[in-house]
Amino acid sequence: MASKGSVKKSGKSSTKKMAKSRITKQQKIKTKLQVEQANKKAFLISDLNQRDGLNSKSIGSKSLKLNRLLEDQQKDKHTQESLAQQKKDTESDMVQQLELISGVSL
Question: Which residue range is the domain that position 80 belongs to?
Answer without folding.
Answer: 65-106
